Amino acid sequence: MDSLENKVVLITGASSGIGRSCARASAREGARLMLAGRRLQRLEDLAAELNLKLGEDVFFLDFDVRDQTAVERAVNGLPEKWKGVDVLVNNAGLARGLDKLHEGKLEDWEEMIDTNIKGLLYVSRAVIPGMVERGSGHIINIGSIAGHEVYPGGNVYCATKFAVDALSKGMRLDLSGTGLRVSQVSPGMVETEFSRVRFRGDSERAEKVYQGLTPLSPDDIADAVVYCATRPPHVNVSELIVMPTAQASATLAHRK
Ligand code: NDP
Ligand code: 8X3
């Protein structure tokens, strides 16, 4: 097993859910955290909870992943001691709505495509060249079971996660021979703010998603991410698909 001790781990979407759990788990492993998200106050609260010293153990990046200029400026402007990102967790993402394709809202489509595909690309394009230069680095993309199976109403969200799957594979091919690693962690249902965001604050509808079953917790996914990140350098975990026991596929969940 390798160690994350003193490694720089950049996590997008660290202000909530899976990203926040990844931050906590990486801190437990002794990593230095670069936390990205738009809600800076949440990142500050997380750093305080973890007793991290700003500039020493933690650094904040409060960009919107959809803003390519902001992403590039933030990554290129990193202070010297934060320049070498060892592990990039491309986690920021969201779903909007569950409409049939022919009834879908264009602004929902744009937001999902811009965040889940283009945002992941912008961050990757800014961070990976430095890893290639140094000859080491690990990119861990958060995909989804929705990147392997389509479910009714999932249309565009699923398409963005199929894209993450393609990009994970594409990265692995293009980085062959560089010493870099690329992993994808693809969860089934995880109880986070995901469904509340999807249904624009409709908590009742969001809660129904997880009713009658035990969903994954964000900590379960952080476990998988840390597992990928702590294998010895010659081991690349290509993908982990992690499902709740009660969920057999994207379309079949057993509810009591
Ligand atoms: P949350 O809503 O709890 O967290 C989403 C995170 O993404 C937040 O920290 C948010 O930060 C960040 N984010 C969203 N949009 C942007 C943006 N434009 N710029 C920067 N950051 C952004 O959801 P999850 O933790 O569940 O989701 C994390 C990832 O896991 C997503 O990629 C999702 O698709 C994936 N996933 C989730 C599953 C689930 O069932 N929950 C299952 C499979 C995959 P802020 O708003 O502060 O910017
Ligand atoms: C999130 C899991 O099944 O709600 O990617 O799409 S699902």
Plain-language structure description:
This protein is α/β, with parallel strands linked by helices and 256 residues long. It has one domain (8-242): Rossmann fold, CATH 3.40.50. Helices cover 41% and strands 13% of the residues. It has eight helices and seven strands, in the order βαβαβαβαβαβαααβ. It has helices spanning 17-28, 40-49, 68-76, 106-134, 155-174, 194-198, 203-209, 218-229; strands at residues 8-12, 32-36, 58-61, 87-90, 138-142, 181-187, 239-242. It has a seven-stranded parallel beta sheet, with helices on both faces. α4 (106-134) runs parallel beside α5. It is globular, with a radius of gyration of 17 Å. The mean pLDDT is 98. The protein binds NADPH dihydro-nicotinamide-adenine-dinucleotide phosphate (NDP) and 2-hydroxyethylsulfonic acid.
List the helices and strands and how they pair.
Elements: E1 8-12, H1 17-28, E2 32-36, H2 40-49, E3 58-61, H3 68-76, E4 87-90, H4 106-134, E5 138-142, H5 155-174, E6 181-187, H6 194-198, H7 203-209, H8 218-229, E7 239-242
Parallel strand pairs: 1-2, 1-4, 2-3, 4-5, 5-6, 6-7
Bound molecules: NADPH dihydro-nicotinamide-adenine-dinucleotide phosphate (NDP) and 2-hydroxyethylsulfonic acid (8X3).
